[in-house]
């Protein structure tokens, strides 16, 4: 009776108009929170397909400022503080350069953060920062900040060259760098303003939106997929070598977060291992290759086995190892060969040989490091020779076992052969390393 009363109370409470309206409002906001991230990801993907990585980076930067991505904890207040500090420093440098180039005592309005909101031309007319900015090579679908101004990456990375017949309004080439800086500073201020508007949403509202998404299966699945795709694709762009936006530590952080969203994805484990190698993190690289290989070896029960150590997993797979290797995907082979190379570099020769020796018996043409193959070939040759000698000793013992003098000889000789095998193997290891 008490339970029924509780259910009736809950039923009446949920039908109160105020709570129904509040729940509907949260549901609408939760669905609306997904739309900007979907749009930004689609635009970034289109730029990547059109071989325009700089514009894709700009879209991903905006995506990282969205509510769903900020909930991952990757966008910290420190990054905002660093951005504001760099904006203030650049603004002061731009003011000094303008004073030196123009030689005039023009007075600019200070917006309180050390940046000039507008600039005056020689006739005393207020042209503003946007008027002096060069034309942008942006598509019709280019994203803007909450204030309507283009994002800073669109300006800094995608400035279009002026047409040959376009007049320069009497500006000298020496004055153009300061003009570009003014347009960049205007865009940075607009980005900061947009972030402040996003932060005005109360923490309680954000928590209600995220809780609704978490408790709705369809929205939760869409959120996880969007976060995963944004992180992995953005990390690949940040890992590009020798470009303006290269940031390997940031790429490594995003990829490490992505594998927590989809731990059974072998491709992301490979991506994490490659970035860990670039960042000189051998332990993380080894772990990534191990986990990536386990996702292919134990796809059905990966979540149940991931807590176990790799050696225990290898022992359980020893009997069917060659057969399982035959079913590996290209990413699985990358994990296997990368793991063997990582073990060899660390000096874990035993585990490396455990992995590769059975595979080379079935697939002798596998492409591996020449130094690693040389060691494995020498170790296998020494082992075969030792086994051959032991077989000969065993045959001699069987023939002469009736003689008392021969009964103790095979054991002594066999031990000597084993000692030679161990010493020779150790010498081979030292010569390789």
Task: Furnish the topology, listing elements before pairings.
Elements: H1 2-14, H2 17-49, H3 53-64, H4 67-70, H5 77-102, H6 128-132, H7 152-157, H8 176-199, H9 203-215, H10 217-238, H11 248-261, H12 266-278, H13 282-297, H14 302-305, H15 310-317, H16 321-325, H17 330-346, H18 349-362, H19 370-399, H20 404-407, H21 409-432
Region (Disordered): 75-203
Biased composition (Low complexity): 172-193
Biased composition (Acidic residues): 93-114
At a glance:
By secondary structure, the protein is an all-alpha fold. 71% of the residues lie in helices and 0% in strands.
Structure commentary:
The protein has 433 residues and is mainly alpha-helical. Among the domains are: 7-163 and 171-211, no CATH class; 375-432. 71% of the residues lie in helices and 0% in strands. It is built from 21 helices and no strands. α5 (77-102) runs antiparallel to α8 (176-199) and α19 packs antiparallel against α21 (409-432). The radius of gyration is 33 Å and the shape is elongated. The termini are far apart.
């Amino acid at each position: 009776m008490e339970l029924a009363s509780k259910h009736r109370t809950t039923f009446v409470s949920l039908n109160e108009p105020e709570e129904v309206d509040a729940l509907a409002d949260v549901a609408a906001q939760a669905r609306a929170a997904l739309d900007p991230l979907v749009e930004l990801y689609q635009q970034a993907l289109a730029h990547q397909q059109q071989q325009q990585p700089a514009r894709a980076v700009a879209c991903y930067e905006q995506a990282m400022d969205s509510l769903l991505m900020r909930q991952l904890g990757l966008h910290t207040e420190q990054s905002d503080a660093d951005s504001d500090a760099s904006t203030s420093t650049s603004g002061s440098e731009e003011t000094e350069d303008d004073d030196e180039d123009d030689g005039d005592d023009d007075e600019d309005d200070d917006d309180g953060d050390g940046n000039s909101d507008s600039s005056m031309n020689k006739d005393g007319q207020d042209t503003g920062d946007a008027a002096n900015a060069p034309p942008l090579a942006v598509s019709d679908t280019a994203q803007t900040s909450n204030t309507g101004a283009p994002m800073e990456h669109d300006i800094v990375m995608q400035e279009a060259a002026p047409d040959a017949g376009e007049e320069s309004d009497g500006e000298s080439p020496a004055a153009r760098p300061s003009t570009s800086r003014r347009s960049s500073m205007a865009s940075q201020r607009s980005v900061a303003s947009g972030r402040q508007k996003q932060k005005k949403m109360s923490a309680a509202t954000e928590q209600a939106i995220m809780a609704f998404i978490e408790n709705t299966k369809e929205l939760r699945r869409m959120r996880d997929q969007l976060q995963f795709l944004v992180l992995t694709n953005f990390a690949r762009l940040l890992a590009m070598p020798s470009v303006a936006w290269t940031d390997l530590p940031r790429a490594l952080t995003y990829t490490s977060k992505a594998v927590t969203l989809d731990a059974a994805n072998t491709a992301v484990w490979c991506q994490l291992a490659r970035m860990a190698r670039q960042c000189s993190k051998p332990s993380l690289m080894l772990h990534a290759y191990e986990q990536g290989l386990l996702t292919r070896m134990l796809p059905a029960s990966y979540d149940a086995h991931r807590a176990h150590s790799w050696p225990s997993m290898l022992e359980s797979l020893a009997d069917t190892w060659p057969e399982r290797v035959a079913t590996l995907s290209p990413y699985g082979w990358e994990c296997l060969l990368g793991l063997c190379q990582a073990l060899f570099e660390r000096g874990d020769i035993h585990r490396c040989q455990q992995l590769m020796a059975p595979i080379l018996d079935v697939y002798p043409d596998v492409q591996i490091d020449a130094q690693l193959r040389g060691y494995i070939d020498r170790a296998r040759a020494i082992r075969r020779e030792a086994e051959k000698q032991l077989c000969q000793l065993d045959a001699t013992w069987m023939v002469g076992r009736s003689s008392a003098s021969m009964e103790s000889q095979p054991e002594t000789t066999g031990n000597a052969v084993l000692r030679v095998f161990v010493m020779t193997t150790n010498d081979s290891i030292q010569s390789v390393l």
